[in-house]
Structures are given as C-alpha cells and as structure tokens.
Amino acid sequence: MTRNHRTARADVRLRLLAALLALGAGAAALVVVILLARDSI
Amino acid sequence: MSRRSRTFMTLLALTAALALPGSAWGHAVLLHTVPSPSGVVNRPPAQVSLTYSEAVEHRFAIVSVTDADGTPRASAPARRSATDPDTLVVPLEQLARGWYLVYWWVISVDGHPVRGAFTFAVGPNPGPAPQFVIPSISETAATPRPLIARWTVFLSLMAAVGLYVLRMLIARPLVRRVQGTELRAVSICFAVTSAIALIATPVYVFLATSEFAQRSVRDIGALVPLIRVSAFGRGYLDLELCLTLFAAAAAISIWLDRPERPQRSIAGLLSVTGALTAAAAALVVPGLAGHAAQVTPRGASVFLDWLHLSAGAVWVGGLVGLLVLWRSLPSARRVAGLVVCVPRFSSVAFVSVLALIGSGIGASILHFPTLASLWQTSYGKALLVKVGLLLAAMGLAAVNRVRTKLRLLAARDRPHLGPPAAVLLRRLVTGEVALVAAAVFGAAVLSSLAPPAKALAEVGNASGRVGPGPVTSVFNRNGYRLELHVNPNRAAVPNSFTIGLSRNGQAVHGADVTVTITMLDMEMGAQAYHLAETRPGLYRHSAPALVMVGHWGITFEIQPPGRQPFTVLLVDHATG
Predict the structure, then answer these.
(1) φ, ψ for residue B141 (rounded to 5)?
(2) Is B245–A21 a contact, with Cβ atoms under 8 angstroms apart?
(3) How confident is the model over B131-164, as pLDDT tens digits?
(4) How far is CA B268 from the centre of its chain?
(5) The complex's ipTM?
(6) Is any Cβ of chain B less than 8 angstroms from the Cβ of A14?
(7) Is this prediction's pTM over 0.80?
(8) How distant, in Å, are the alpha carbons of B4, B253, B394, B401 from that of B270?
(9) Contact B265/A25, CB-based, under 8 Å?
C-alpha cells in the first residue's frame, strides 16, 4: 500500500467519522424535541 | 429536496403528530380560592390561597391583597403550597373588618401572562363593597424589546434553515453546470444567520423572563436561575441546543460536500440527513413552547405550526440565498448561474407557499372560534396584517414565476434578455424578502398575543352589546318580554344581574333563570349563578362576577314553567 493510498483511506475514515457526528447531532436534536414534547404536553 | 429527504421529513412529521397526545389545555385558569370570591368570612383569614388549572411558578407570580384604601395587606410574597403545586398561598397580616381586593398575575406554561381579580370581605357586617382600583400591570407579552428579539430569533432561524436547504439541495448543481462559480457566499451567509440565531435566542429568553418576572434586565443574578423554571424558558433553551446541533451538523455537511461531483458520497448523504433532522427538530420547538401546544388537537396543531415554519423557512432563506448568489456570481456568469438556480428554487418555493397557505388556514381554523374574531380581536387583526403582507409577497413571487423565470430560460437562446431579467429578479426578490420579513414580524406579534377565548364562538349569537356603565336592555323572545339589568356593571365589585320576565303584560312567576358569565378577552373559567325570584316575574342575583375590566359574555338562560327554555346573550364591556 502506497503512502497515497494510506492518506486516501485516512481521509475517507475522517469524512465518515464527521458524517456520523453530523448524523448523531441530528438524532440528539430529535431526542431533545421528543423530551421537550413529553415535558410540555 | 431529494426523494429521500422528503420521505424522511414526512416520516418525522407523522411520528411527531402521533407522539403528541391530544387533549384540552388553555392558559392557567383560576379554579378555586379561599376565601371564595365575593365571600364574607367572619374571622380574618391567615392567608389567601389560589388554586389554578396547572402548576404556576410562584417566582413569576404577583398576588396583591389590598384593602379599600389600596394599602397592601399581604405579609409575604406568594409561595407555592407545600401540599399542592397548583396552589399559590399568600400570608396575610391581621385583617380588620372590611372589603379586600385580591389581584393575581401569573405566567402560563406557554409564557403568556394571565391576570384576574376578586374581592372578599371580613365580617360580620363588612359594609358596602367599595370601588377598588385594579392594579395596572401589562397582561401582554408583546412589549417592544422581547418582540424585536423574538422577531430576530424567528427570522434568523428561518433564514439559516432556508439558506442551508438552498445551498445543499437547490443551488448545488450550479458549481457543476457553470464553470468558475462557487457557493461560498451562500455558506458564509448561512454561518452568519446561524450565529445571529444562536445569539438572539438566549437574549430573547432573557428579555422575556425579565418581563414575566417584572424584574430589571440588569438583575442578571436573579433572572438566570428563573429561565429554566418556566416551560417557556426551557423550550427556548432547548431551541438553542437544537440550533447548536443543527449548525454543527450543517457545517460538517457543507465541509463534506463536493458540489462539483454529480453524485453525493455516503458521508455526504449521512451528514445532510443529520443536519436536516436537526433543522426539523429546531423548527418544532417554537410550536411546542407556544400557542400550538395549547390548542386541541395538539398533535395536529404542533404539526401545522412546524409545517408553516418549515415552509416559511425554505421560502425566506431561499430568497435571501438568491440575493446572495446574485451579488456573489461574477457578472459574466450571473445570468447563466441564475438560469440554473431560479427555476429549481421557483418550483420549491411554489410548493412551500402552498404548504404555508394550507398550514396557515388549518392553524387558523384550530385557533379561531369564529370568523368574526379575525377582525374583533387583537390576535385576529395581527393575523390579517400578516396575511396581507404574505399575499403581497406572493404577488411578487407570482411575477417572478411567470415572467422573470421564463425570461431567464429564454435567455439561453436570446442572451440579450438575460441582464434585464436578472435586474428585475433582484428587485422583485428584494421586495419579497422585505415583505416576508415584515410578515415574520407579524408572526412574532401574533405569537406574543393571547389567542381569542373559545367563548367568542358564541358572541355571533349575541342579542346586544352593552356597557360600559349600568345596563338596561329590553328584548322580546318566544312571546316573552325580558327586561335585563346589570348594575353598576363595574369590575371587581358586586353587580346585580336582574331580569324582569313578563308575557302579555303579566309577570311570569316560577321560571328557572340562570346567568352564565364568561370572560371574552382571555380564557378563564365560566361562572354560573341561579337568579332568585325576589318578587313575581323579577329574578335577581348579586355577585362580583365581573372580576376584571374587559369584555364579558353574559348569558341569561330562561326556563319558563312548562315552556321551552331560551337564552339571551349580552356582550358587556365592564370598566373599573
């Protein structure tokens, strides 16, 4: 595996990790709203 | 918006609609007091207790007990009862014989102040009830400072979500189709509006809490702990959290996006899904923390509010984004860029406006008890102004759709049509943005006012409008002559409700007569009294039922012996 390959794979992993973070943020916001709905309704 | 995103949004909305149970809930209503309203107690009470329909926060409550001279007689501020969270207790000084006014002001769960007043007397023989002066405390949340902050929150939240949608779902193909273009300016504008929303939201909560708690904004140490005490404060702090999560997810997805590639990567798709979920969640919060969650059926009401806000966000954010694109595109490529973006945005905006109209009409049907309350109440008038502004903006949008868009498309074959069409587009879109921003201000006013009372639904059947001042009205119903009196028709004092009932000149004896009194300016519980026959054909009851200044529905229900019952409704204006 060349250096370029390793860099590319690390980049893919980083991007996937960032995407999962964004997805987690969306899920967390959804949980916040569901808890608020349970609290205020 | 892609099919995947559309499906996700629909599923999310359906989940929210199903998750939220539906049952009646209005503003805080005073259910029970000790001493009772207009009651005469023979021993001075040690305290006044007020039981509401929901828990009210004592740190936001103002309860004053004053004697006939206006001297305060409470020995300590109101506190929550140790045994019942719905009850406020106010310790009293040793009261002398005489009449006392209890004036209360509390914050409902949706952040709206509600007030009322009643009198009681310490006897025996307290003497005639005096004319009390009702303390003057604002009962509206629509004061300028929180209103401007609320408008900033709404507008920046909507613009941020709309700009993100434009950047990621509408204008994305621009970079690929027109060489030498980029979406950096739209991304920066998104970052700026998100930052404004993130700053404006806590500022608004702080200002609103200072108004509700009747404390100075400089009293930061006392106000900060109060913010999470009210459901309203908790709701908007949760909005701040959702906004932060949205801004983070959106920033990640913009960083991951490669608009020069036609297909999105899996990472890109995941991040866009996360950001759109957070945006959808953030747009639910204003409904949950406001009127929508107080209207039956609540699930449908919150969903309509969310749809209204989302559609408005896509529209106003997209318009702002188009202006940014117009400015940021190199002049040589401006028309080509607009040819890519405008038709795509036009289709999305068309659907958004339809959703905006549909959800607005649906929410109005849920909020307004009568059509007339549209022009008879402050809430209705604010809505009419908002609708007028939106219609004007839709007029400009229609011109853009049928003229500017077609000219831009025609510019592909006849380039000389492009520049004038682009200039016309900029002018019309600027006008649209100004009108929609003004309509959002209307929405901020609207959501700061108390919605019309459900009792207004019956006002359309009113036999007459009376007051201020003593009332004498004569009506003929079902062959009977009714002479109605309300005297002195003043708030917070005993009023006599009298009805003289006759038929063919003869007094009608033995009728069953009740009077039901309902506050029309705000949701309060109705009071009903049976009128005693003091002499043949004359029915009377005296009570301080008009517990506050304002408009009251006074319904006389008459059941003549052996005949069909009938009612007469008066809309009364009682002054202090």
Answers:
(1) -95, 5
(2) no
(3) 666 554 444 455 788 889 999 999 999 999 999 9
(4) 38
(5) 0.92
(6) no
(7) no
(8) 11, 8, 34, 33
(9) no
